[in-house]
DNA sequence: GCACCTGAGTAGCTGCCCGCAACTCATCCG
DNA sequence: CGGATGAGTTGCGGGCAGCTACTCAGGTGC
């Protein structure tokens, strides 16, 4: 995360990257989202991340409102902390899906895995796509980008 | 980009982040995509990035096949280098759009701007969304994620 | 009661890489 | 020939990543 463009960059992408531009942050979100992990040790084991880095990243995620810390207590155990995604964190699913899709097609890997998103209960798989207001899918090649003021 | 998970991570997201997990890389792609910039100085001026970092990032983008370098010559000028997105680079538009959308809604900023994607020629705006095979939109809250082997 | 385990961190150190500024190098213009 | 411009390279300095080792609190086995 470059310090030259702070959190008040006018570009929404720069502001997003200020939060999730670090590699580990998105991977933690991914583990929370896909594997349902909530505990320090789960993230540590799953990612092989150093504990001090994990502490720092979780603190960032709490700070930024992407996760909340809750104290829970299983019977017969002492109270522990767990970290759960907030709505803001869960709505990163589009970013996660886009990255997964890109990696799967442009950086294929034997035995690789990619998160798939299913509609609750019906278990129907959902794809990420560009759609117009009339519901038609548009492949990315047919799009041009333009900077637009937020409303 | 953590060195602990190399390019051969089985997770497609980790492999994607290995390429675009750095803040500047995606911002360069964004400038190329949204503003149509192709030249060293254009990126430098638009992003305020240090030249050595820009050199390194452009080299990475060339290496990874997201951009190609071409020599061009305007009449009356000497030959220059320009950097253009490849198909792999352009297909990061989903990631860019997802990040822009997230930043716009969760990190709003007065006077902020977000890239908007329009269908070529018809100029119809296109939105990023999860859709099922029957074409229905699904809001991210109604999705559950699952790790799936690539095919 | 005491040793031990486990989960959740903290502390200290090393090295790399970011970021800045200054410099180079080639070419074109006047 | 002198200056401007575009495209970088080089040389520092500081900060954060990443590793390892340590701490601390509570529960369990004996």
From TrEMBL, chains A, B:
PANTHER family: TRANSCRIPTIONAL REGULATOR, MARR FAMILY, TRANSCRIPTIONAL REGULATORY PROTEIN. This is Helix-turn-helix domain-containing protein. SUPFAM superfamilies: Winged helix' DNA-binding domain. Keywords: DNA-binding, Transcription, Transcription regulation. The lineage of its organism: Bacteria, Bacillati, Actinomycetota, Actinomycetes, Kitasatosporales. InterPro entries: HTH_HxlR, WH-like_DNA-bd_sf, WH_DNA-bd_sf. Residues 11-111 form the HTH hxlR-type domain.
């Amino acid at each position: 995360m470059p310090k030259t463009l702070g959190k008040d960059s006018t570009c929404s992408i720069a502001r997003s990257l200020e939060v999730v531009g670090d590699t580990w942050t998105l991977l933690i979100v991914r583990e929370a989202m896909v594997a349902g992990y909530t505990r320090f040790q789960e993230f540590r084991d799953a990612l092989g991340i150093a504990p001090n880095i994990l502490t720092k990243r979780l603190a960032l995620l709490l700070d930024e409102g992407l996760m909340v810390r809750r104290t829970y207590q299983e019977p017969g155990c002492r109270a522990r902390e767990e970290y759960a995604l907030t709505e803001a964190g869960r709505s990163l699913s589009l970013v996660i899906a886009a990255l997964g899709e890109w990696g799967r097609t442009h950086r294929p890997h034997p035995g690789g895995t990619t998160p798939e998103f299913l509609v609750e209960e019906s278990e129907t798989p959902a794809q990420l796509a560009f759609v117009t207001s009339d519901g038609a899918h548009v492949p990315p090649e047919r799009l041009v980008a333009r900077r637009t003021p937020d409303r």
